[in-house]
Amino acid sequence: MNHLHKLALSGLLVGLTFSSSAAFDMNDLDKALLSDLLQQYTNHQPSTCTGAEGTTTFNFNYPGVNPDSDWYAPFIPFEADLFLAEMSHTDAGKNSWTIRVGQGGNMYSHFNPGRYGETMPPQEHPLAPFIDEVHQSVAVNSNLNLHPTNCNGEQCPLNFNHQAGTYQKDSPYTDVPFFSPSLAKHCEGATCTFASWPQQAHLKTIFTSTVMSFNRFTNCGNGIIEHTEVIHNFAPEGSSSVDADLGYFNVPWSGVRRSNLPFVLEPNPVTGQLSFDDPDTVDYCPLCPWGNDEPGGPQDIGNGQCARDSLNNLKGFTTFTAPGLYLNRATTQIVAADGCPSSGTSFSDQCFQADSQHAVNCCSGSLSEGTLQCSRPGCVTMNFMDAEAYCESNSMRLCTVAELDSGACCSKGCNFDSYRGWTSDTCVKNYLWCRKPGADCYADPAGCMADANECYDLVDGSVKPGYTPITLSIPAGQTPRCTSHVGLSEGYMSVACRMRPTGFGQTTAYLYANDSSDECAPWSQDGQMRIVKEGTDDGISIPYVRHWSWSASNQMMYFSVYSQDQTEAINIVNQAFDNSQGSTPMNLEFKVILPPGSSAPGPDYNPAALDSFTFVNGLGQEYGVTVPGGSRRRMGAANRDYTVYTINYWQAGAKLAPGNTFSKRAFFFTSDLGDAKTTADSLIPEVVPDKITVERWNPRAVDIYATGTSFDVVAASSAEGTSTSCTSTSAALACSGYSTPKAGYSAFFYVTCGTSKFLGQDPYHFTPGNGQTFTFPGTSNSNTEYIRSYACVGEAASVRPIWKLIGFFNPATCTSLGAGFTYDDNICTEPTLTSAPTNAPTTVAPTNAPMTSAPTNAPTTPAPTDAPMTSAPTNAPTTSAPTNAPMTSAPTNAPTTLAPTPAATIDKYICHKNQPLDSTICADGQLSGGSCSTANQPDGCGNGGKVCWWASCPSGAPVTAAPTNADTPPPAPTTPPPTPPSVTVTPAPTSSNPPPATIDKYICHKNEPLDSTICADGQLSGGSCSTANQPDGCGNGGKVCWWASCPSGAPITPAPTNADTPAPGPTTPSPTPPPVIVTPAPTPGSCPVCESTNESCCAPLTCVDSGKPSERGCKQL
After folding, report:
1. Strand 211-221 vs strand 539-542: parallel, antiparallel, or unpaired?
2. Is 806 in contact with 750 (CB distance < 8 Å)?
3. What is the C-alpha separation between 251 and 214, in angstroms, rounded?
4. Of 183, 278, 638, 944, which is most buried with the most CB atoms under 10 A?
5. How far is CA 1081 from CA 942, 1011, 1033, 1054, 1084, in A?
6. What is the pLDDT of residue 1116?
7. Which range has the top average pLDDT, 230-239, 338-347, 589-598, 1098-1107?
8. Percentage of the chain with pLDDT > 90?
């Protein structure tokens, strides 16, 4: 089906499809915009991902909760408002998948039924349902983020624009989550594409968002999904760089559900190999809590492997593996120390698992006797066991910490002066923090404390000089006097207990047990953390330490207890350490019980068959060369069922000024672990990052046509097309624009708030305070005057705006638009009604043809209500049925038809406009192919004072006149119902019958061509003209007109006679209307044809074949 590029309908009439001029071959404006925004720029590299159309399906109707995704129960009710689309791939093997996309165009579910199930985390993040732990892009204004001038005495505000939406931190406005609004969507073939407006996530906010996000998901087959994410800065030209520039990005911010995919593997950055067969040599990344992935830190297993690092230094992919992988991880930790403290990059001593990778420094002789020698044979890095054996094979041994600290290995080559190296010293691990030498925690609570690595000697465990460690004790005659802290924390009750001296400041222990969330700690897998009475094992096990201390003025320690009941948790601690009868302090210890070693795999162990999920983000060779800025891979463990994985676009050059765009094509896929590297290696060359400046875009024309305060939007029919057309005689070209960014042009949005409407470049038009406390783009005038994009000025907190991307226009030449404009997609195209299934399909069969089902054009659903956005005239009725496409009425004067009628009806019999029908005809509001409007006319139509139009009427319908032809006999005379008033019809004038100025209730027949004097202005005396492009003439565009009252002198000509369009003629009146008098139609070909547009042009219009494309064609001069 061919369609004009038009704004996607806010709802579809059930049982109808719409067709129009064959000159256009795309079905809506969304498709035109999204197609161009994802690929219409110079040097775009086309996707090589093809061939999966036959295995791809789409769905825009919420299918209900997938119980196997096992979402966090309190957040499940929010998914219905979140859901935007579902895309599925059917695979003959185990690689079928279904992804769900939220309103922000981001993936929140990736479900693989043949393998491990749900990839994405269960959404346990407090106040962030489907907002944080999803696959999304994030953009940061580095000028404003945490800037001290914006601090309000409590904290400095964050400036993070999340593609997914906002945290629930602005009650009552966000009691129902505010998901970033959808601006456009389109699915076709094997691809779904989305546009959205990412929001300031950290509420309450004083910042605006200048970010638009475009995302495309393409099914490549065999479990592979190509994901193109685009971040565009849509701040208008000339905006302040402080307010508008973006400088730090997550592309993407993502991760996996750790319980389903607990193991993280990356290829060795030196060899490029991915090892997993031998439990002793698995290329496994131990995951520390998020933020502890610094190079040389505990997550760095050598050569930067598993630490945060540039993509240039890695091998292009990261694989997450399902349970069943065997690892031999020693529980004893070894000290790694700086290879040369006096030169190169300096590192503090730190404890590491023995399977980590570090530089090898070999020693011989004695430091105390002055005979010490150091060598770095072969410049190798390896794990501890191999390092010991390697030095012994060279007739040496590993150096001690003291020997490295002496500088004996400085300048011995290999650049190891700037790396940590293994020592022979076993780590004595402490955990409690210390007060720094000379620090005052009352005056400086945030900066007075040092962590355990800093304040203890890692070799003998002693406290370093000047540091004061926290000690745990219960004073004589007291109990811990615990209180509840933050409720459930990581699944267990959090408590605050008086267990230490005063005088200690803020600490961030964040120690976890029994859940692998801190694999850098030796107890992370099946080990225990305990608080016990000194010198005994009498005490309690705990799952989590949040803070050893926080305020210098109290004695509180903050931790969780293995209980989900507040009273029980408090009693467990108070009873275990009850010193109310004691006469001396009860001293306590924090104790770690190490886990047992790993067992050996059985003879049938086959790790290559394990399920895996892989991110492919490329080798990063473009960054700093063809793409300004740098790249970085980061990952770590959250204190929930979530492993964080992200790629940063950052550093100098990564700035996106207004009009600039960053694009990145990458991949993710499911496979057997044994196939992960081969598949990833084949995709790495297809990863394409790009920074797109505004002059590189190659857009098509997009024009806004307006009549009164209504407007329509039309895009050129092909990529880079330069002209559009609108066949309405009443509509004028109001504004010309483009489908992509362009110098001097700004993104335009159609925004509705309740009954208010706006068309223009400011998405905050209806935001409370706009123009008083802030302007877009910008920052609020006050740190306590918050910017709420999700609120409508003058409306209740439950009323939210709805946004739609229209295109990119020049605000200097589009000054006639603004508040009060209503979108009406019938201005430039009056749809021809064709039959269609009664119910709109919910799943689109894979095809390359444009989609004809409701989903593509389904309305944006605002949260929290279920009412769909409509673009019909103000008085048009709407519905919000969840399973079928929403129904909106045609414009007030447009007739509509529905499904085929029963045998009792007479096809092609056209009932006249405003004719009252009996309640037996339309009491249910929809019968025999008809529809009822809610125009609230005084005449009756069943049960609502409605006015009805019918394509085919029951034989007993009261009528005034009807067309006839061979296929459509007139109805038998009937007695009209007693209650509806009759319609007075006045005959067309003749020379002997001079008319009055207008004749009310003169109903022009459907498909009747009218002279240009009647509808040249397109709208007269209550009538309207469609753009159905019939061959018969009605003014300047082959229009079909309906009129509530017609000029008395209107010459009326018959429509073409054929099976589909009967010519009007006299019929049996009901009860006594005179026949309609008609005059002959104009002779075909009597009007000249415009060379520039190939359209007929009848007087009083004139062909214009010069000037801008939008000025050419048949015009009223």
Report:
1. unpaired
2. yes
3. 12
4. 183
5. 38, 9, 8, 6, 8
6. 59
7. 230-239
8. 54
At 563 the pLDDT is 86
- 3-class secondary structure, 859: coil
Q: What tokens appear for 1090 in the block?
A: 């415009």
DSSP 40-96: -BTT-------S-GGGEEEE-S-----GGG---GGGGGGHHHHEEEEEEE--SSS--
Rounded to whole angstroms, how far apart are CA atoms 102 and 81? 9
Higher pLDDT, 658 or 124: 658
Q: What CA–CA distance (Å, rounded) separates 104 from 803?
A: 12
The helix (run of H) or strand (run of E) holding residue 455 is helix 452-455
Question: How does 576-600 read in b/e, with b if 16+ C-beta sit within 10 Å?
Answer: bbebeeeeeebebbbbbeebeeeee
DSSP summary character for residue 150: G
How far apart CA 918 and CA 979 sit, in angstroms, is 8
- Could you read off the pLDDT of 1043-1090 as tens digits, one per residue? 333 333 333 333 333 333 333 333 333 333 333 333 333 333 446 666
User: pLDDT, tens digit, for every residue of 70-85?
Assistant: 999 999 999 999 999 9
Give the model's pLDDT for residue 895: 33
What is the identity of the amino acid at 1028? A
Residue 740 C-alpha from the chain's centroid: 20
232 phi and psi, to 5 degrees? -120, 135
For the cut 80, the answer to whether the pLDDT of residue 824 exceeds it is yes
pLDDT at 565: 86
- Burial class for 783, CB neighbours closer than 10 Å (0-12, 13-18, 19+): middle
Bridge partners (DSSP) listed for residue 74? none
Residue 311 half-sphere exposure toward CB, CA atoms < 13 A: 29
168 against 1035, higher pLDDT: 168
E strands along 514-619, which residues? 528-533, 539-542, 544-547, 556-561, 586-593, 611-616
Structure tokens at 929: 């192919």
Of residues 472, 182, 162, 419, the one with CA closest to residue 304: 419
Is 426 exposed, middle or buried (CB count within 10 Å of its CB: 0-12, 13-18, 19+)? middle
Is the backbone of residue 807 left (phi > 0), alpha (psi -120 to 50) or beta? left
72: tokens are 């966090």
Residues 471-484: pLDDT tens digits?
Answer: 999 999 999 999 98
> How far is Cα of residue 940 from the mean position of the Cα atoms in its chain?
47
The dihedrals phi and psi of 73, each to the nearest 5 degrees, come to -55, -45
Alpha-carbon span 163 to 177, nearest angstrom: 13
Average pLDDT estimate for 783-811: 95
Q: Other C-beta atoms within 10 Å of 854: how many? A: 26
Distance between CA atoms of residues 336 and 1092, nearest Å: 78
Distance from C-alpha of 1028 to C-alpha of 1031, rounded to nearest angstrom:
9
Rounded to 5°, the CA angle 131-137-140 comes to: 95
The winner for highest mean pLDDT among 727-741, 817-831, 867-881 is 727-741
Smallest Cα–Cα separation from 113: which of 74, 82, 60, 67? 67
* For the ranges 92-106, 351-365, 848-862, 969-983, the one whose mean pLDDT is highest: 92-106
CB 885 within 8 A of CB 858: yes
Contact 547, 507 (CB under 8 A): yes
Paired strand residues for 660: none
Here the tokens at position 129 are: 């349902």
DSSP class of residue 785 equals S
Neighbours of 275 (CB within 10 A): 14
Tell me the pLDDT band of 737, cut-offs 50, 70 and 90.
very high
Q: Does the CA dihedral 765-767-771-774 come out positive or negative?
A: negative
